[in-house]
Structures are given as structure tokens and as C-alpha cells.
Automatic annotation (TrEMBL):
Ranges that cross the membrane: 6-25, 30-48, 54-73
Protein name: DUF2651 domain-containing protein
Keywords: Membrane, Transmembrane, Transmembrane helix
Length: 82
């Protein structure tokens, strides 16, 4: 496995899946985007180079959007069950 597999395969898929799971469990929108940004920045300095900074921002925004969507769906389901 090389860096491109990690940067454009494993990392985005894990961010997508974990954003949905952690937002549903913790019921907070900001937890997983912060975690994904921190992990991406660490990977930027250890595995990749500074040109990965743009992808750090993109992956953080994707995580934020997915967390917001998951939280909205969870709230609608909770309100429907009441």
C-alpha cells in the first residue's frame, strides 16, 4: 500500500463512516470533524507533505457536512418516535 491508497482511499472512506457513526453515538456535530482534522494534520506531517493541506480542509468539511446531516436525521427520527 502506498501513500495514494491511504490519502484517497482508506482515509476518506474511514472519515465518512466514522463521521456518521460517531455523530449518531455522541450526538455532537463538532467531535468527528475535529478528530478528522487532527488525524489528517498528523498524517500530513508524518506520511505526506504540505501539499496535503488542501485535502485536510476538504476532509474536515466533508466530515462536518456528514455530521450535520446525520445529526439532522437523528433528530427527525427521535421527534417522530415521541
Amino acid at each position: 500500500m502506498d501513500e495514494l491508497d491511504l490519502a484517497f482511499g482508506i482515509l476518506p472512506l474511514s472519515i465518512i463512516v466514522l463521521s456518521i457513526i460517531f455523530t449518531y453515538i455522541f450526538k455532537k456535530v463538532y467531535i468527528m470533524p475535529l478528530v478528522s482534522i487532527v488525524v489528517s494534520v498528523i498524517l500530513m506531517f508524518t506520511v505526506f507533505n504540505l501539499s496535503f493541506w488542501g485535502w485536510v480542509v476538504v476532509y474536515g468539511l466533508i466530515s462536518l457536512v456528514l455530521s450535520y446531516i446525520t445529526n439532522s436525521i437523528r433528530k427527525k427520527i427521535d421527534n417522530r418516535n415521541k
